[in-house]
Amino acid sequence: MLAYIVRRVFYAIPILIGVNIITFALFFVVNTPDDMARVHLGVKRVTPEAIENWKQQHGYDKPLFVNGEAGGVDTFTDTIFFQNSVKLFVFEFGNSDEGRNIGYDISKRMWPSLAIALPNLIIGLFFYITIALLVAFFRASYIDYIGVISAVVLMSVSGLFYIIGGQFLLGKLLHIAPISGYDEGFEAAKFLVLPVIIGVIGGIGSGVRWYRTIFVEEMEKDYVRTARAKGVPETITLFKHVLKNGMIPILTGVVVVLPSLFMGSLITESFFGIPGLGSYTIDAIQSQDFAIVRSMVFLGSVLYILGLVLTDISYTLVDPRIRLN
What we know:
Layout: H1 2-30, H2 33-41, H3 48-58, H4 74-77, H5 80-85, H6 102-137, H7 142-156, H8 159-173, H9 189-202, H10 204-219, H11 222-229, H12 234-245, H13 247-263, H14 266-272, H15 277-286, H16 290-318
Helix pairs in contact: 1-16, 2-3, 6-7, 6-9, 6-10, 6-13, 7-10, 8-9, 13-16, 14-15, 15-16
């Protein structure tokens, strides 16, 4: 297993380099360093001298990928891409274009993001799997039909509807929790109730439909038919065998949301005024702060790759037939 983990780490390096190149290229296709200088200087008429001065202060006065004026190794190292990307691989994020320490901001903003994402994931998984098992247990009945139709309807509704409708109904009319805002310590709990409730409700449709499909497929396999033929009660077959064997695709689905546990939800944090990494990224995109955007994309890629490795390892715990070589 150790050899497998080391091999996956080495595989991750070219992936991360590719992500950096694509992010870098896309950002500078849309915004040139001169455009970034005009945005950050905040005035309509900026002198060329002021633009050049800003670019020199922030390291954007060099060529993007290749420095034809430099010789030898400096042709590639004395560039914006190299000087802004290499440090990321040792998790040195540097400063934003506004002068703030990005590593410090991440360490502060990760906790509000986790405070929303963890309860959302845990509570959501419990409800989605429970409802999906119930619907699968009564498959081909009215409960199954109603469950599937309801899931499709809920999937068809925009996530913004859940947020705005939930804020109006649960926050403004019923006064269950504040509509937006955040506080430190235990006082933050009252601001997290509404985002978590809306997040769980908003994911019921897709979650139930996905897990129901997994369980129904498992229930049609030979080992389930054998258990039924031996007289094993349906509830024991469902919860002891079907649920356990359905964990592999469930784990695969969970890994997709692992980066969001740390990175936060872009829309949710923005609407509820949560100072997490999601709103941090949105603010950076709006202000064209490439240093923050680059750091957050890199961090998200690392977390996703780490999630894939952890998922592969967890497969061996769920299914002993799987071995990592």
